[in-house]
Each structure stands twice: as C-alpha cells, then as structure tokens.
Design brief:
By secondary structure, the chain is α+β, with helices and mostly antiparallel strands. The chain has one helix at residues 40-50; strands at 5-12, 54-60, 63-71. It has a three-stranded antiparallel β-sheet with strand order 1-3-2. The model has no long low-confidence stretch (mean pLDDT 92).
C-alpha cells in the first residue's frame, strides 16, 4: 500500500520566533502572552502526531512557517 502525504503550510510575517524560546514553543503552558494559556501549539502537535503526522516550524527573516504533514 502506498501512503499519501498531505502538507499544510501556515506562514506568519510578524516578528518571527525569538531563537531564545524556539525550543520551548511546543511545551505545555509555555506562552509569551500575558493572557495566553500556552496550550495551542502543544495541543495541535499532539493531535497531529496522534494521527501519524508531524508539525514542525522554521523561523527566519521575520517570517515563521509551520508545516503540518498528515499521512493517508
């Protein structure tokens, strides 16, 4: 059986992710916002991985790109 891969890319042209916190963004309850709960990226990553996919990111030149890969 041949698996199909589906990619979804989300790009943000804001300030990018500070390299000092890049390794923390998927940690539960980590946030840089005063009113944030810090569960969005963690929950998203867990759901995607539970379905056999992955979520990664790249941040450069004030652009952050999240890529979701799902396997059929």
């Amino acid at each position: 059986m041949i698996s199909r891969l589906y990619f979804i890319t989300i790009t943000d042209t804001g300030n990018g992710i500070d390299p000092a916190i890049e390794d923390k963004i998927f940690l539960p309850f980590f946030t840089t916002r005063k009113e944030g709960a810090g569960i969005g990226l963690t929950l998203s990553k867990n759901i995607i991985e539970a379905h056999g996919g992955y979520l990664n990111h790249q941040s450069e030149n004030n652009t952050t790109r999240f890529t979701i890969c799902l396997v059929e």
